[in-house]
Amino acid sequence: MNISQRMQTLTGGGSDGWDVFIKARKMIAAGTPVTELTIGEHDIRTAAPILQDMHGSAMNGHTGYAMVPGTDRLRDTVAQRTTDRTGVPTARDNVLITPGGQSALFAAHAAACDPGDTALYLDPYYATYPGTLRGVSAIPKAVPTRAEDAFQPRADDIAAHAANAKSLLINSPNNPTGTVYSRATLEGIAQVCIDHDLWLISDEVYDTQVWEGAHISPRSLPGMAERTLVVGSMSKSHAMTGSRCGWLIGPEEVIAHLITFATHTTYGVPGFIQDASVFALDQGPGFEAEIAAPFQRRRAIAQAVLAGQNSVGLIPAQGAMYLMLDIRATGMTGDDFANALLDEHHIAVMPGESFGQAAAGHIRVAMTIEDQAFEGALRTLTRFAEARAAGA
Ligand code: PMP
Fold first, then answer.
1. pLDDT tens digits, one per residue of 49-66
2. What residues line ligand 1, using a CB cutoff of 6 Å?
3. Cβ atoms of 101 and 205 closer than 8 Å
4. In this structure, which residue's CA is closest to atom 7 in ligand 1?
5. Of the residues 96, 235, 269, 324, which should be mutated to test ligand 1's pocket, given the most ligand atoms within 8 Å of the CB?
6. Confidence band of 12 (pLDDT split at 50, 70, 90)
7. Domain spanning 64-283 has what CATH number?
8. Which of these, 12, 47, 265, 273, has the minimum number of CB atoms within 10 Å of its CB?
9. What is the assigned CATH class of domain 5-45+286-385?
10. How many other β-carbons are positioned within 10 Å of the β-carbon of residue 139?
């Protein structure tokens, strides 16, 4: 039997960027302790009261098929929270509840792109992006951002790639760079979208993790609400990665089509997960700040460890749970650095090259282990880089 070209080419061939991660997991399975600073998963689990609410909802019978667009309560809660946070009037009919942000990314591109359409995204990028775009049979086209700009995209670079494109996918606060897009950056992006009639797909799953500056949703910029699809999620903001609950926010007519799409793909999200998500969102911004606090603390630890040396450069880390470190002074590629650090010191980080060519010579460090261990690992990493830079 033949498998579709779409499936066979989903990852685009070559390495999918997870080699170091898989090697670390194999070492662990073989009994070697490894300090893992790789994936974006909190070191805490979902809070007990949220799980208690989930359990109560399930015990009360919310275990059958839930409403495909999402429960009225969750859609209303997400709509109100979006209105409060962005100032853009948002109603239930602007919201589709999805099984996580990942599924919302797929749905958004299914709505924006026909097969063969060009879909833009920015390099460095979250690892699933190109495959998600290929999944809807769009043609992914990467627009590089630059280390010297701390990976703030330039509108001119996007415009240079925009001819015949249908959509642009952005992510601020950014995974993997930790960059938070400034108002000027977002206004430039908005203008390109308007000039070239692009859908803007704005992945805002890290919007509660901002350490410097402010999160601005581009949907709030003039002329953008009608062409922007916002991806949100409970995963990062509420430490609910495994619950698979996210959303897409957009114009009513797009959401209406995507409800039909959801009927034919996911058939919705479990009711008890949605009830627990309402409960979690009702805990308010104080709870979200508590979930984000460890990353902010560890960012400060990293700033202190990295001060006063120049073998490892820190991209400002304005938001999200990652540090992007410039290790070009060592003369190594990100891949070589990550492999050697794993082999010699049993510390696993992600090579910048896993996230595209623009982050070559960098590594991404997830701030997802307990403070003291994090500080120790960063000190080892820095000494390793200094020794390599001295020899370079
Ligand atoms: N977007 C970005 C930038 C991410 O880093 C992730 C998860 N790591 C997602 C979307 C998807 O998250 P989820 O499906 O858990 O909501």
1. 999 999 999 999 999 999
2. 40, 100-102, 126, 171, 175, 203, 205, 233, 235, 241, 246
3. yes
4. 40
5. 235
6. confident
7. 3.40.640.10
8. 12
9. alpha beta
10. 17
